[in-house]
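Minutes, methods subgroup
Present: GH (chair), OT, SY

1. OT presented the first of two proteins processed in the latest run. Sequence and structure tokens recorded below as shown on screen.
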Amino acid sequence: MEKKRFLAVVMTVMMIISMVPSMVFAAAPSGELGGKLKVKGLAAVGTTVNADYTKVTPEGVTDEDFTFSWSRQTEEKELTQVGTEKAYTITQDDLGYRLVLVLTPVDGSGLTGTLTAKTLEVAATEEEAKVVAAQTAENTEDTQQAETVDGTENAQLEEDTEDADNTEDLQQNGESEQEDDSENTEGQLEETQKDTKEDSDDSQMKIYTEDQLHVGEDGNVQTDETEKNEPADSSEAPATEDNADASLEAQSLDVNTGNLNFSDIEENYTQANEKLSITVTNTGDGDITLKIPKSDYFDVMNEDGSEAVSGVQLAKGASLMFMIQPKTGLTKGDYSDTLIFESEENSEVAVQVTAEVSVKEAAQEQITAIQADPESFGYDNLKEGYETPEATTITLTNTGNTTVSLAQPYAEYFDIGELSASVLEPEDSATFTAVPVTGLKAGDYLDSIQIARTDTEGQEDVLTTIKASVTVSEVEKVYKLSVTPEELNFGKAKAGYSEAPKAQKVTLTNEGNTNITLNAPSGNNFKIGKLSATELAPGESCTFKIRPKEGLKTGSYVESVVINNEQQISAAVKVQFTVKAVRKAKIADPADNKITGISPDGYTTQSKITFTAVGAGMDNESPGKGDVRYVPYNWKVINTNSWSSAPYTAAFGITKAGTYTLTVVFDCQKYNGSEWKNTGDQDTKQVNFSITQAQTVTATPTPTPQPNGATAKSAVKTGDTTNIAPFVIILAIAAGCIVGVVVYKKRKK
């Protein structure tokens, strides 16, 4: 019984082995991305940073499983993609920004989710990047340790920790690896804190517990060590409230007058002549440091006339005299200011004086003046028969200090426009235009345009004169006649055309400055229409039409149609027209269809028979509309075979002796002007030939040729190239074992 079980197990194992495929592929990693994504390298311009996913899960992922995306993050948290490779070289454009690496599975990888990692802000050099990395580590440590008095965490901790979350294992040489924001800050900064503390004592700080902290009367947080650091000398302690009140009562000031009223000043003064004095007295119990007031309208001076400055010591009972004077440059108006003299020790100890002055308008001399712009102008390039040129605008400005009433100006050779305003206040302006009158003959013309005012009695007083000139020269006669278009092409027509091409229009333009008289043009092979006008003034145009004559014979017609005129100006239009001979269509004769290459002597069963089908008209390489040709379509001996394109040649062999017929069918085609099209008609040609039995040379069987090129079928192939021989052997052994067990069992029975 145990032998039977053993044999059964062996056979089962053998059967399973036989069904195992020849190659087993390792399962690809799949599932949600996790673990830690890092950025290796310094965040500095010119350096190269790399994606490090050695701690990313699931295990076994490779570069082919991901796409890499490097982006630049601005202050507005906007991302701009800058790279798509595993490594990225930092550029100048990245300076001052953080780089964000996003790891995304490729489609079909079996992975889901994404991982993100950030760098610190990009520095200009590697040295600066090392400093930034070290400072980030130090700030993160300090922020994590700091707490407020009530034991709550400092709000800054969140911000610093967020930056620190991207820094891990900062090395001695300053190289940093930035990880995604979920990293533990303490583990990331361990090495950086160690290096930083070795370089600077500033990294050390005293951390106090909550029971060691308390708030003093001044509102500041104090520790148990605060009292130790306070000065022992009680004289350094601030004065008490009682002492401060005593000090205020000990200081006082007095002034001999409370108002300073200056005499009126005339506007545009160079310096105020009047100075008034005040005396300030220290009426307190001690010395006072006097603060001098500042004013926008008055100067405060010492008794000797020098500028008074703050900081003067005024002893108990002492007095100082100050001189007050209005500042230079005050414009018309009333000015008042309060001058406050006070103690620098206590601003509440002060006295004040009010200073007042009025600046009156200065008496003015009445000035009447008008300024013209321009003061002169001219027209020097006018020709006889000129059109009205652009007018000149003259601006009149009242530069005096009195109101002026202007009279309308006039001139002999100029048309003068109306004044825009006739009454001008000081600094006001008015304008008028001036343009030469039309029709002036050749010569020089001078004019004086007077600008006058009208007084209350209606009398005019000339204030200024504007010089104006015009130069008119004789016109040189210019004759010029243009033709548009200069060429006309009427295309082609077939001989015997029944209707001439449509007439085309020609335009003549007088581009000179003198009238032109035209004569009717004529042509030999072209009909010329009537001129729309025969007298052309400068700038005017006329038209006429041209077309080929009817019944012109085959040939090319080119001629120049001349437009004659009394001024003998050359003007012509070139015209051309072609008459083509009528082409006769080339109709191929189906009798010219033939089969070539078949030997009249016949063939043997071992012969290769080659032939060519020749269609009538196939040699027509420049077809015209209506041409007809024949193209070989198919051929048949035993089976029918078709041609798709030239050459129309075929080969075959027949292994059975006998008489056979080769048949070729030709399609009839007609050219439609752009391509050949089948008409549906066909022509058939045949040729007979004989096959005799070939003598056998050897006993080796010769494969029987298949008519029409047929060949034996090949076995169907699959894409699996696995050698199945070992599996066949194993399967045979297993089958033998089964047979042996069955025989053995029957014998036992």
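2. SY then presented the second protein from the same run.
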Amino acid sequence: MSDQTFNLLREPWIKVRHLDGVVSEVGLLELYERAEEFTDLAGESPTQDQAVFRILEAVLLRALRDHAFFAPHSDVVSTWQTVQGASELGELVNAYLLKHEARFDLFDPVAPFFQVADLRTAKGEHPDASALIPDVGPGLFSTSTAAAGSRLPTAVAARWLVYTQAYDLSGIKSGAVGDPRVKGGRGYPIGTGWAGAIGSVQLLGPTLRDTLVLNLPVEAVVVDRDEVAADLPPWEREPDGAAPRSDEEVPPRGVVDVLTWQQRRIRLFPSAEGKQVEGVLICNGDKIQRANNFVDPTTGYRYSKAQSKNGVDVFFPKTHDPELTVWRGIQSLLAEDGSEQGKDRKPFVVTQLRTKLADAVTDEYGQSKTMVRLTGMSYGTQDAVINGEIAETYPVTVRLLGEGAEQLRATAVQVVQRVLSFRGSLSWFHRQLLVCGGAAPEEAPAAPVQSWLAALETEFVEWLNYLGSMPTPQDAEADWARRMTRVTRTFVAQAVDAAGPRAAIGRSEMSESGNLIIHSSARYEAWILSKLSENLHMSKGENPS
């Protein structure tokens, strides 16, 4: 019997953080048995953790369906309450896992987990294990260099395998024998992994068990039996071969399918004893339909006016803005349907809280410290390189997301709109300071505005935490006005001082009407502070002439 085996149910491979902050590795069975003892996942990167969490949520969803605990179209509120309060939830999930244990062996000779057993190229070549680790330069991932990653401990390789299916960059891949799309030994680009094409939104509870339950798309638990039978994870389907489901893009068959989507065909090459992975082959897999693919509960969707034709609305998954993650992300998260965000759709994990489910969730977690995590990937050059990760956590409580908090959410959306609007005024102010000093810049300097935005973001996160106490909208607005005024006045004063005596003296010119205009730092300081006051009162001003 071969020693090349690694059972993901029993072998420790998922990194978790305990309630006391200690990090350890656990297998799937132990994770579900002790989920209330862990606060979060703790892998090499936030995107890797998100990829693993998608698997954990898919397992939970399939276990609940498999248990037949809920009849089709059962009441969503009572279903969620039953799951949340089930003391035997870990046992239920593990019973499901044990039914499919053979499919969770990383090196199974017929159906290795998340892989194709006999995947090969025409030349029989493959890179070393470092190909699993994203090449994004030093410092981003704890597994640092290619040399260090040429041989990976099997547990580490398992985490990166799951990550690769979710976030792998686009570009030319090795051409797999048996893939009809291969030309000249190459697999031509079919896009990034699905998780890399979306901006993930995750509700965080006090423990990992809470997080799993808070992110459970409850309606997907009580779907019709035919939908349950169609919406299968890879470990319940016939093992994949090198060929894709279709030569063209295909839509997922449900929530479980999209959470476990196989955008790649992969094969790990273990060492003789199976304790390390020495090589990996990564080829193209199933090309996912990206337009009007609404089954993923973790992402919002943006309306595409350009793509919408002949009365058919077209939507694409929303991604997070790496420059304005908090502002755009929170704005999108808290905006109501039919707002200025137009036809855009919020993540289902959020919208389900704006139903009758809100009261049940708030009763359980309203006084708990809940958070929202935004996770995504920023790609460059045709999605064939990784620019960096997006991973931010904000103190947004379930009470703020649920029913009864509409006015507070509207206040937060207005605050974001004001900040983004004032950003343009502040940029113009900094350009005028340079003009006052005798320079002739074509564009405003970006660094001062970014520094102001970073300082304001710190205040905004604290303000979001304050909203969790459910103040009146009037008090919330007044509190934000004080914060924004304090930060902005400090930065304006610093900018005026830095502009120096020459800008203070300024320069003069004659207007078209024959009036003398003096351009000085004092003049523009007064203007920007006036604009600040107008902004906080939601009125509009004009640039001075």
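Chair's summary of item 2: Residues 142-146, 539-545 have pLDDT under 50 and may be disordered.
Next meeting: continue with the remaining queue.
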